[in-house]
Amino acid sequence: MPVLETSDASKPGPGSQDPGNGRACNRGRMLLCDDEESIRLLFEMILTEDLPDVDIDLAGNGREALEMFSQRHHAVLLMDLHMPVMDGQAAFDAVRELCKTRRWEMPAFVFCTGFAPPDTVVKAVEADESPHCLLSKPVCGERLVDTVRTRLT
């Protein structure tokens, strides 16, 4: 089943959101979360090559990602949707709640999946002024890098 591609570079990054009086995201840090180690390592290699000034943290499930995010407030979360322990949608909801509670700027989520996404993810991606996007696997390296780079600035 095809996945909605909405990673238009003209979409605003997290810096375009008004964090109000809250704490801004760490623009030099991103979090890559996928339960498949080979995908994590491949994406990390691609992103490190083209974005050498960005610190990349790795997580194997949504719960690990939430714990890391709560400590480092990443600007971008590259998130698989289908994972054990806590899936990408549940992690998105938990991060959104954490940001609301702590008065933090919400990071940009780049959902990456080989399956049809849930309606709630599609709505988050398609919302006006949304920094979030959805990529289908397999994704080419150039598209991955461009999508992340746009959301870090």
3D structure, described in words:
The chain is of the alpha/beta class. It has a single domain, classed as Response regulator (Rossmann fold). It contains 5 helices and 5 strands. The protein has helices at residues 37-50, 62-72, 88-102, 119-126, 141-152, and strands at residues 26-33, 55-59, 74-80, 108-113, 133-136. It has a 5-stranded parallel beta sheet, with helices on both faces. Helix 1 (37-50) packs across helix 5 (141-152). It starts with 25 loop residues before the first strand and ends with a helix. Residues 1-20 have low confidence and may be disordered.
Core attributes:
single chain; alpha/beta; Rossmann fold; five-stranded parallel beta sheet; disordered N terminus
Please give a quick description of this structure.
It is built from five helices and five strands. It has 153 residues and is an alpha/beta fold.
